[in-house]
Specification:
The complex is a heterodimer of chains A (446) and B (321). Chain A has two domains: 50-165 and 330-387, D-Maltodextrin-Binding Protein, domain 2 (3-Layer(aba) Sandwich), CATH 3.40.190.10; 166-328 and 404-441, Periplasmic binding protein-like II (D-Maltodextrin-Binding Protein, domain 2, 3-Layer(aba) Sandwich), CATH 3.40.190. Chain A is globular. Chain A is 41% helix and 14% strand. Chain A has 18 helices and 13 strands. Chain B folds into two domains: 8-63, no CATH class; 89-320, MetI-like fold, CATH 1.10.3720.10. Chain B has helices at 8-18, 23-63, 82-88, 91-124, 129-141, 144-155, 161-168, 179-206, 211-219, 224-252, 256-261, 273-282, 287-320; strands at 66-70, 73-77. The chains are: A alpha/beta (446), B mainly alpha (321). Chain A: It comes from Nocardiopsis coralli.
């Protein structure tokens, strides 16, 4: 009997094919690195009809979905350009994971995408965003707050177009403050003092709600507290950790004290934006640290028990300091380095950051304008109490200019969260944070 | 198609079969058949290769490389052990490993014990077993992200019903805000969800055990306790091995429950390896280290499953002797 083995096809066929697949893929990855991936493309608005894709999660703090009317209006003014909106996941991390997979894979779409302001350095370093300043006039970024441009830059180049500026505000109860003859607080000490009084009087259960869970939001909060105390997560040169210095100790100890004394809700170490907002809107907390969007919800009678009694002011400073520190948040628009529609994309980007459109966005979608001239104009400030309070904030960028910002942030929020949840002493936790930030900066951490 | 339809292929086939074939031609036909078989298999092999073999090999290669990201994609430079060194020197990785191991061992053990108990009860039920099984399967059928949201809602420190109950009995604890209670909460959510799955598997094993053995045992004077240890459990071993295997694989790769309920917090107390790997890969864009996490996790789970199988096989062998 003949062995069936004799008739087997040569066994090397498939592994060879697999090897070829591996090799071609790796080689594709090894293709020469262009300095200018869009070389040869015109920066002018094209005459021929083109379609650009814009990946963006819904944004705007009230009313219309800003994406919809922006696109409609832009297309009316630029009949040759069609903008196709691709809806992005609202979860920032899922959004980034999807985008980086797609762009790393060499996809030419989306041409442009909304990304968190904290992404710039990382996206730039990984080749996932184009240095747009190269294709824009030299003075293009002069109209934006330096903290905003800094947050959009990496190694001297600017990668993000500031679409909306988000910042933190202190929300308070106008009814309670009025009843007890109190002024809106401008320092953290006064926030604590008024909280104590309002709790003692039985008006509220807690003083101040904020975001204390172990996530990016806590890094933004810590950044503010530490900046208000005169320090920073990194030193001024953004080269080494300052999270174990005296101002940071003072700030984190203050945050810890809020919880210890019962001025912050017991669960604050699990609060993200929705939980903290809820603690305010259901009347449990007298004060709230939150972003601009919170105002519309807190004033909506359908969602809030305290609608009509909501006041908003710039973030508090610490006594003896005058920095009313607010972290910089919001959306930048980044450009895909593989875009085949440079001219059309630039036209859209410059249009949405024009003073007229920034003003219209403030009016229709209640976003805080990124252009200083627009944000600070009387007309715009009159639009909403949030926008009115914005210029009183001192904007402090998170140390996003390192490509390892994600790891830096992880080092900060996990250790500060340990303090807030009572599992570690401030001194120990910040010592650990310093070590972890250092190894993040060195590119040694996960 | 009717029998009268002209089909050249069909018409010629029987004719060819009738003709006696010379030996070399038969070999050729066999080769042709083999080729045809390969041709049919190729699409499957290509798909399996593309979605399983290639990614696994590629992750392995990536885990031993520096991954340099740029406009034109990524470049693998290596080989290097740097990614593994980064893991082995990272407290976060050890914390994730410890949590994942603890989580797997505890949840699988509890689910096995509870699942077996439930299966024993179900087996004795004469009425309503179908209904009860359907009810039991509700947690298992529910999408994990949804049930995790429900748990998070019930455990929420401000308005959660469980927190309210804890308050009522004077226990002041922020369940998802402190490491020990948070770990317990995530594990309970897993046990709640997956015990029914184990129960159904065990029940399937139980019904195959012949009744006569129990009758014989009771005639010999064995009580229920003895029957369970001497008859039921030994014959359930292979069923339990399957349950343990499935559960270990799944439990070791847990992602969704902690992702939704705690985000891995407080601190990194409930961050499993899968969540860490995803974060390192797609938040830090640290592809090399992310691949190293995936490879080590895969390796560990493989070893655990082999060990589990070995233990069960040894037991089965003992019984047969």
């Amino acid at each position: 009997m003949r062995s069936p083995r004799a008739d087997r096809p040569p066994r090397t066929g498939l592994p060879k094919a697999a090897l070829a697949l591996v090799v071609t893929t790796v080689l594709a990855g090894c293709a020469t690195d262009h300095d200018d991936p869009v070389a040869g493309q015109s920066t002018d608005v094209p005459d021929e009809p083109v379609t650009i894709t814009w990946q963006a999660a819904p944004f705007g703090n009230r009313g219309d979905d800003a994406r919809v009317w922006l696109v409609e209006e832009f297309e009316r003014l630029h009949p040759t350009i069609e903008v196709e909106v691709v809806s992005a996941p609202t979860n920032v991390d899922t959004n980034r994971a999807g985008l980086s997979t797609q762009i790393m894979g060499g996809s030419s779409t989306p041409d442009i995408y909304n990304g968190d302001v904290a992404w710039s350095a990382q996206m730039a370093d990984a080749g996932l965003a184009l240095p747009v300043d190269e294709y824009l006039p030299d003075d293009y970024f002069d109209g934006f707050d330096p903290a905003v441009v800094e947050a959009a830059s990496y190694e001297g180049r600017t990668y993000g177009i500031p679409l909306t500026l988000d910042q933190a505000f202190l929300y308070y109860r106008t009814d309670l403050l009025e009843e007890h003859g109190l002024e809106p607080p401008t320092t953290w000490e006064v926030v604590a003092e008024q909280s104590r009084l309002l709790i003692d009087e039985g008006e509220v259960d807690h003083g101040i709600a904020y975001q204390g869970a172990a996530y990016e939001g806590l890094t933004a909060v810590t950044n503010e507290f530490v900046a208000a105390a005169g320090g920073g997560i990194l030193d001024d040169a953004l080269e080494s950790p300052a999270i174990d210095d005296a101002p940071a100790h003072e700030a984190v100890e203050f945050m810890h004290g809020l919880g210890e004394e019962g001025l912050a809700p017991a669960g604050v170490s699990t609060f993200e934006e929705p939980e903290s907002l809820q603690s305010f809107t259901n009347g449990q907390s007298a004060f709230l640290r939150n972003w601009a969007y919170a105002h519309a919800t807190a004033e909506d009678p359908g969602m809030s028990e305290i609608a009509g009694d909501v006041g908003v002011t710039a973030m508090p400073a610490f006594e003896g300091q005058d920095t009313r520190a607010s972290s910089v948040g919001g959306w930048n628009v980044y450009m895909n380095p593989h875009t085949e529609n440079l001219g059309a994309s630039l036209a859209f980007l410059t249009w949405i950051t024009s003073p007229e459109i920034q003003a219209e966005m403030a009016e229709r979608s209640s976003t805080v304008p990124t252009l200083d001239s627009v944000r600070e104009s009387e007309e715009i400030r009159a639009l909403s109490p949030v926008i009115a309070a914005a210029p009183d904030n001192d904007l402090v960028s998170r140390p996003t200019s390192t490509p390892h910002y994600t790891q830096v942030s992880q080092a900060v929020f996990s250790n500060v969260n340990a303090v807030l949840s009572g599992t570690e002493e401030t001194g120990d936790a910040l010592g650990e944070a310093r070590g972890a930030v250092q190894s993040a900066l060195d590119g040694r951490s996960l | 198609m009717t029998a009268h339809t002209q089909d050249p292929a069909r018409d010629t086939a029987p004719e060819r079969a009738r003709t006696p074939r010379p030996a070399p031609r038969a070999g050729r036909a066999h080769r042709a058949a083999t080729r045809t078989a390969w041709a049919y298999l190729t699409p499957t092999l290509v798909v399996v290769g593309a979605v399983t073999v290639f990614p696994v090999l590629f992750s392995l290669a990536m885990s031993f490389s520096h991954v340099d990201l740029s406009y034109s994609g990524f470049e693998l430079e290596g080989p290097t052990l740097d990614n593994y060194v980064a893991l082995l020197t990272s407290a976060r990785w050890y914390s994730a490993l410890a949590f994942t191991l603890f989580y797997t061992v505890v949840t699988v053990a509890v689910e096995l014990a509870l699942g077996t108990l439930i299966a024993l009860v179900l087996e004795r039920l004469t009425a309503g077993r179908g209904w009860l099984m359907a009810l039991l399967l509700v947690p298992w059928a529910m999408i994990t992200v949804v049930s995790a949201q429900l748990w998070a809602f019930m455990l929420n420190s401000s308005y959660g019903v469980i927190s309210w109950f804890f308050d009522l009995v004077g226990l002041e604890v922020v369940i998802l805000g402190e490491p020990a209670p948070a770990i317990a909460a995530v594990m309970i959510a897993d046990i709640w969800k997956t015990t029914p799955f184990v129960a159904i598997i065990v029940l399937a094993g139980l019904v195959t055990i012949p009744r006569e053995q129990y009758e014989a045992a009771s005639i010999d004077g064995a009580n229920a306790w003895h029957s369970f240890w001497r008859i039921t459990l030994p014959q359930l071993t292979s069923t339990l091995a399957i349950a343990v295997l499935f559960r270990t694989l799944q439990s070791f790769g847990v992602f969704d429950l902690p992702f939704v309920m705690t985000g891995g917090g407080p601190g990194t107390a409930t961050e499993p390896l899968a969540l860490l790997g995803w974060r390192v890969m797609f938040q830090s864009l640290n592809l090399g280290a992310g691949a190293a996490i995936a490879v080590t996790t895969g390796g560990i789970v493989l070893i655990m499953c082999l060990l589990a199988l070995k233990v069960f096989r040894a037991q089965v062998g003992e019984v047969r002797r």
